[in-house]
Amino acid sequence: MNTANKIASSLLEIKAVKLSVTEPFTWASGWKSPIYCDNRKILSYPEIRKLVCDNFVAQIKKLYPDVQTIAGVATGAIAHGALVAEKLNLPFVYVRSAAKTHGLENLIEGELAANSKVVVIEDLISTGGSSIAAVEALRRANADTLGLLAIFSYEFDMAATNFNSVQCKFNTLSNYSTLLETALECNYIKPDDLIALKKWREAPDKWGS
Length: 209
Hints:
By secondary structure, this protein is of the alpha/beta class. The chain has one domain (3-192): 3-Layer(aba) Sandwich (Rossmann fold). Helices cover 40% and strands 22% of the residues. It has helices spanning 3-13, 46-63, 78-88, 129-140, 157-165, 176-185, 191-202, and strands at 17-19, 25-26, 32-33, 35-37, 69-73, 92-95, 108-109, 117-125, 144-153, 170-175. A 6-stranded mixed sheet has the order 7-6-5-8-9-10. A hairpin with a 5-residue loop joins strand 2 (25-26) and strand 3 (32-33). It starts with a helix and ends in a 7-residue tail after the last helix.
């Protein structure tokens, strides 16, 4: 079993990912979805937490050996990013979804050296909007953002388009296609469910309407 399958299997096992075609979830955007992902649950499982951290570290060493700072995207990737930074013995910062309205009104928390080479850690990529907002905030702070790594991606075409539009590289430890393959093999879903789940990814904003 490769890394992507191991992580997909782990997410299903601890119910960090839930699949339900007949009783879909409603996202904050209002979209109806047969999948819900909460990677914060990983933090409660030491073996899976280590699996994710170790694979982030391996990818960073391979893809971005010149990295100087790790940045997490609030709130879901703060802990994961901090664990990676600790493993690499590097400085850590995190990017808020919006600047504080009091005190120093920080958008980026922590000490970010000018021109620092940064790798961004994210827990989940859907459309890529919040991830790209974090990347752009770091760039405005004069960081050299090398790329972004996430635990999981829904593989929406719009996400790839959005990342390309801001010239930001991104990679994920696992993804929706691998999840469905693993879910079917491990009997989390039935073959009939697979058709609906694939259709959702093609048009998530229209599915279930």
